[in-house]
Amino acid sequence: MEKEKVEFKETRAYPVIFMIVITIIFVGILAVFYHSTKGRVEQRERIELQKAVLNAFNLPTDNVQENYEAYIKELSFKQEGQEEEITYYQATKDEETLGNAFIIFGKGLWGGITALIAYTPDYQNIINFAIINQSETPGLGGRITEEWFTRQFSDKQIMTGNEVNKFDMVAENADNITSTQVKQITGASLSSRAVLDMITNESQRIIQTLKEAL
Amino acid sequence: MTKIDIFREAAFKENSVWRQVLGICSALAVTNFMRNSLIMGLGVMFSLALSGFTISLIRNHTPRSVRMMVQTLIIASWVIIVDLFLKAYIPDASKQLGPYVGLIITNCILMGRAEAFAAKNTPLDSMVDGIGAGFGYTFVLLIISLFREVLGFGSVFGFTFLGDWWPRWSIMAMAPSAFFMLSILFWYIHQKYYIQVKK
Question: For the whole model, what pTM was predicted?
Answer without folding.
Answer: 0.74
